[in-house]
Amino acid sequence: MMIQFGKNTDIDDWMSLVEEISWNFPGLETKEKIEGHRETVLRFIGKGQALCAKDDNGKIIGVLLFSRGRNMICCLGVSPTYRRYGVASRLLSKALEQLDRTNDICVSTFRDEDEKGVAPRALYKKFGFVEDEMIEEFGYPNQVFLLHP
């Protein structure tokens, strides 16, 4: 498995993964929303704020968008086929290297009572993130997690 910065040439493979996991992400419920996300991914790629994990054949198996300006993890997804193989941990480690560790780093994820939140909450806690405020994103209840310096 390789972790690398996304390139414009990765976009079709990237979006294939996004479509595969979109059922698990609020804000990606329709073709139009997925198409809008494609533009977002291309913007992040252009700023060098997009990471992808590729298998030995070069297929994208995990993606992560982060914002240096907001010091946050914006989106993290892994193919169901490759979950529990450390893909998310490797992506998150690489992203954290790109962010300002002297300030809080934030991420929004599912709430404790949401079954979708079991794996991501465990991942963020493993990296030292702590629970913060309850919020809503894309009309869905989430919770902010912070990684303190």
Describe this structure in words.
With 149 residues, the protein is of the alpha+beta class. 32% of the residues lie in helices and 31% in strands. It contains four helices and seven strands; from the N terminus they run βααβββαβαββ. Strands 1-2-3-4-5-7-6 form a seven-stranded mixed beta sheet. The radius of gyration is 14 Å and the shape is globular. The chain starts with a strand and ends with a strand.
Write the layout of secondary structure elements.
Layout: E1 2-5, H1 11-21, H2 31-46, E2 50-54, E3 60-67, E4 72-78, H3 87-98, E5 105-110, H4 118-126, E6 130-137, E7 140-147
Parallel strand pairs: 4-5
Antiparallel strand pairs: 1-2, 2-3, 3-4, 5-7, 6-7
Helix pairs in contact: 1-2
List keywords for this structure.
7-stranded mixed β-sheet; alpha+beta; 149 residues
Summarize the main sheet. 7 strands, mixed
Low-confidence stretches are: none
Number of strands: 7
Largest sheet, spatial ordering of strands: 1-2-3-4-5-7-6
Overall average residue pLDDT: 96
**Helix fraction bin:** 25-40%
Overall 3D shape: globular
Measured on Cα atoms, how large is the radius of gyration? 14 Å
How would you spell out the order of helices and strands? Answer: EHHEEEHEHEE
Strand-pairing-aware structural class: alpha+beta
Strand content: 25-35%
